[in-house]
Amino acid sequence: MTDKTSDLMNKLTSTDTPEELDRYLEEIRDKYPKDFSSYIKAILAEKGMSIVDMQKKSSIDRTYIYQIMDGSKHPGRDKIIAIAIACEMTLPECQRALEIAQEGILYAKSRRDSLVIYAINKKMSIMDLNGLLEEYKLPPLD
Fold it and tell me: Where exactly are the structural domains of the chain?
């Protein structure tokens, strides 16, 4: 997961022939997670965390976490944010998780999203984020 998206986009847009396209697709085939659970597993491995560690920090029901991780459940935006915080993701990693799950990325013009962004950047816990949201009279993470 080290290539910049812009570099890949440049490579893809400079592809002219079907053969070059085949080479490009082969190059990225197994390199990038295709679904949310694969992405989270890659992040966990990169950070040396287990699913159990992530589940405890996320405060999400254990059964539901395992259903997310086996792909049988599709988490909503707040659950993805909770998982991102529990995994100590950076803001770009969190945004990518939201994109992969086809949920809206965090938006700096939204008061609630701004607080979430702040919490991610400050490595706050979910409990601390929910306290911050409450302080600003905004809904906590589901």
Answer: 1-32, 33-135
